[in-house]
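Form 12-C: Joint structure prediction
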Amino acid sequence: MDTADSSYSYSLTTFSRSGKLLQIEYALTAVSEGKTALGIKARNGVVLCTEKKFPSKLVDRAAVRKLEMLTPSCGMVFAGVGPDYRVLVMKARKSAQQYKLAYGEHKPIRGLVQDLAAVMQEYTQSGGVRPFGVSLLVCGYDDEGPHLYQVDPSGAFYGWKASAVGKNFKNARSFLEKRYNDDVELDDAIHTALLTMREGFEGEMNEHNIELAVVGTDRQFKVLAPAELRDYLDEAN
Amino acid sequence: MSILEHNGAAIIAMAGKDCVAIAADTRMGLRQQTVATDFEKVFKMTDSVFVGLAGLATDVQTLRNTLKFRLALYALREEREIKPDAFAALVSHMLYEKRFGPYFVEPIVAGLKPDGPFLCGMDLLGAPVFTEDFVVAGTCTENLHGMAESMWRPDMSPDELFETVSQCLLSSVDRDAMSGWGAVVHILTPTGVTSKKLKGRMD
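Section 2 - Result
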């Protein structure tokens, strides 16, 4: 880890007496202050969804994007510190392109998740840096079918059938636990995602203050346009 | 003499019906002096991917070891074996990385995909050519091309393929001083691989 302008060559994340890495705990706190994001794995695809609220009407909604594509069949979303997320998106995309150059194929989601997790862990054990203040939800569709992974600031990653991160994650997770079953189709999963999102939503939820993306058997990660979202929202109402 | 001709080699790969063959001579020499008659030039990468390496013997061995290393890491990371096209892309990439100080090797990739045979030949800088019939490499490529062009036909069975590949190789190396001194043929089918040694002129 090159920290040219810092005289620190030792890590800022060190063990407390009780065996905890407090910086990581604090990072997780920062994550749970962030806007809710959730993901649901269906039998034939994965859906990711997040809030997209802004402090003022003057903010240009179209210019901001939280659901980002990593490869044509893989995308992710976050909860926590936005700028930290951007860095991870760029690193993951570069890693995916390097893989494509070497093997002529898209990097499988598992490899991407392992890469991201390795980077995030690095920042908990390197000189002069702090952990990333984001939890990521990564979705993809490969030869083995649909996948959903969560990566935490510590670098730990988990495969999920459905998960939520951010402000309302505990309620969202119990809501999902009740409603989830292994055979759910992608359309139903979108429906469930919207219902779950609405549970903890302050104010009216519409196609302009949430962002939703899917990847199905066509293996194309796609962020839904507001018009498409409107149709799903109308159904959910 | 070009550096690619220093040690001598003759490699050919051919496609049949749901099968693929890759064959090579086993001579290794130092210019005109034959040193070994059991030198391996075709290597199994996975059950469905073989690679033949023609050229400078030291680079043949180094590239073989490097590829083995890369594939082991790939299998551990991806928890699956590499496919023939991805492998060919990998070899091409590895060769071009050394663009201004290349490996003096011209590889041939022969593999079996679920929908049929895969053939790929490359120059020493990694420029690939994908064919449906055959690819050749080594010090007697003119001979090999001539033999293969006249003897290859589509949809050969594994036995027919074996005969064709063997005759092409043996006749070609007989008119080349730098290759021959024994040969080996591998036939890949969905059920497995058969490898046979050929009896040819030992000169």
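Section 3 - Comments
Helices of chain A lie at 22-32, 82-103, 109-122, 169-179, 186-199, 226-236. The longest strand of chain A covers residues 134-142.
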